[in-house]
């Protein structure tokens, strides 16, 4: 069964015969390539709820196994972007650069980089997607600050970008709605790992934010959704290649996520560590990643030309307090109480703090960051649906650290004693000690530009 409609292109108006959904599934099953009109038809059918879930599931699975070409992926990204509201940042003269991360345990860079970029003269819109988080979202962390709101009207989001230069925005049903619908189905059908669907999803949302360029952090390891290094490298190449095809500047770093980033995991604890980073302090691994991602952002924006100039620009705005001031501006603009930024001790502490003792003497050989995240999730869960902000772990011993028997591998902050034993099962199993010092892996594995 098919019908037709007219399609307008640069060469004039032509007739497109609507294919059946079964034909499209069979075409991709047999490794065919969709035309632009066919992709547009698929996106329109999802938007209009005309494509049944069982057929969309079959189509997603066919794409998962037989992939999309770079051109198909670019077309899908553009059509999904155009399926909803596209933020118009044309009146902002500063360069507009977005940041995307595949999410990792203890990663605070999504909180640090927007105000840092704004302090450097770059506008950074941030619509936080569900695929950018690992257990605790950036929005959850910010909402530990009393009064902070991420559910802004789009108009207010744009006004804040004009005034402050950065804004954190919760996922909106009006932005790339087809991507939202497709992602929910991918979660239910085991097709989330499709590199080409991830690429189209990322670019549709980030370009809908009004970004002119994109800095990407693809994490791999036990604390990320991507467990395989080669797959992470392929995703980085896919996003940068398709972005270039869409005439957008893009750089990707492939980074190690086989241990937590920084010294803390947990909402309020991570906010406190974020403030340290914005003062140019904090853990060395996080400082390294903030510096390298910040350098990519200012170079993409044209604010700095050489590597040395980019490094000096980022370091200057971290050390002189201007990045921290931008963070406070952003928090205040979104209703947050900046007194908690000036004095993080105002956050309500957990009732109990106990150490996780090392079972023997040795070196930290490996850490399963995902296990630590799950342990924190057990402690932080509550009936309200949002994680308990005071709960988490701190003073995390990293790979290569020597410990004595009984010395703390981390400090555990918790409020509910009934959840402790279940959490300890995850936290204990996260560590493996060995008699010889291992060589810690490099944080940045590869740069793709």
Q: What topology emerges from the helices and strands here?
A:
Layout: E1 4-9, E2 12-17, H1 21-29, H2 36-47, H3 53-66, H4 70-81, E3 97-101, H5 109-119, E4 124-127, H6 138-142, H7 154-163, E5 166-169, H8 177-189, H9 195-208, E6 213-220, H10 229-245, E7 249-256, H11 267-278, H12 284-301, H13 307-319, H14 322-333, H15 339-342, E8 352-357, E9 362-367, H16 369-380, E10 392-394, E11 402-403, E12 408-414, H17 420-429, E13 431-434, E14 444-448
Parallel strand pairs: 3-6, 4-5, 6-7
Antiparallel strand pairs: 1-2, 7-14, 8-12, 9-11, 9-13, 10-12
Sheet having the most strands: 4 strands, mixed
Instruction: Give the amount of beta strand, in percent.
Output: 15-25%
Cross-sheet strand order for the largest sheet? 3-6-7-14
State the separation between the terminal residues, measured CA to CA: 45 Å
The mean pLDDT is 93
Low-pLDDT windows of residues: 1-11
Structural class by secondary-structure content: alpha/beta
**Overall spatial form:** globular
Annotation, overall tally of beta strands: 14
Helix content: 40-55%
Radius of gyration, taken over Cα atoms and rounded to an integer in Å: 23 Å
Query: Number of DSSP helices?
Result: 17
């Amino acid at each position: 069964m098919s019908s037709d409609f007219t399609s307008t292109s640069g060469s004039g108006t032509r007739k497109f015969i609507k294919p059946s959904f079964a034909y499209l599934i069979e075409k991709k099953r047999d490794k065919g390539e969709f035309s632009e009109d066919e992709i547009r038809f698929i996106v329109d059918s999802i938007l209009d709820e005309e494509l049944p879930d069982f057929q969309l599931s079959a189509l997603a699975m066919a794409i998962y196994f037989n992939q999309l070409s770079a051109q198909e992926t670019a077309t899908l990204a553009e059509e999904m972007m155009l399926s909803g509201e596209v933020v118009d940042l044309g009146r902002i003269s500063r360069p507009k650069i977005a940041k995307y991360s595949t999410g990792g345990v203890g990663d605070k860079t999504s909180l640090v980089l927007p105000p840092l970029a704004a302090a450097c003269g770059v506008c950074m819109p941030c619509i936080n997607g569900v695929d950018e988080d690992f257990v605790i979202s950036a929005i959850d962390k910010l909402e530990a600050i009393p009064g902070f709101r991420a559910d802004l009207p789009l108009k207010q989001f744009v006004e804040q970008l004009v005034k402050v230069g950065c804004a954190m925005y919760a996922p909106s049903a009006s932005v790339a709605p087809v991507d939202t619908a497709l992602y929910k189905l991918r979660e239910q059908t085991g097709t989330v790992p499709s590199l080409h669907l991830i690429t189209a999803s990322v670019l549709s949302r980030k370009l809908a934010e009004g970004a002119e360029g994109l800095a990407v952090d693809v994490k791999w390891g036990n604390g990320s959704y991507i467990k395989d290094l080669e797959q992470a490298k392929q995703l980085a190449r896919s996003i940068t290649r398709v972005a270039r095809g869409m005439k957008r500047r893009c750089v990707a770093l492939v980074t190690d996520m086989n241990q937590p980033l920084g010294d803390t995991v947990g909402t309020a604890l991570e906010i406190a560590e974020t403030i340290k980073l914005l003062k140019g302090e904090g853990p060395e691994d996080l400082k390294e990643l903030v510096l390298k991602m910040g350098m990519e952002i200012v170079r993409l924006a044209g604010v700095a030309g050489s590597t040395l100039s980019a490094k000096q620009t980022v370091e200057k705005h971290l050390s002189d307090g201007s990045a921290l001031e931008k963070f406070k501006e952003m928090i205040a603009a979104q209703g947050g109480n900046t007194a908690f930024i000036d004095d993080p001790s105002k956050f309500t502490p957990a009732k109990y703090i106990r150490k996780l003792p090392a079972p023997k003497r040795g070196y930290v050989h490996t850490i399963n960051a995902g296990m630590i995240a799950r342990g924190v999730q057990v402690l932080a869960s509550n009936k309200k649906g949002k994680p308990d902000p005071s709960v988490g772990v701190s003073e995390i011993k990293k790979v290569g650290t020597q410990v004595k028997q009984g010395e703390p591998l981390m400090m555990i902050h918790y409020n509910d004693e009934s959840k402790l034993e279940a959490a300890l099962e995850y936290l204990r199993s996260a560590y493996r000690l060995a008699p010889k010092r291992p060589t810690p892996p490099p944080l940045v594995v590869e740069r793709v530009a």
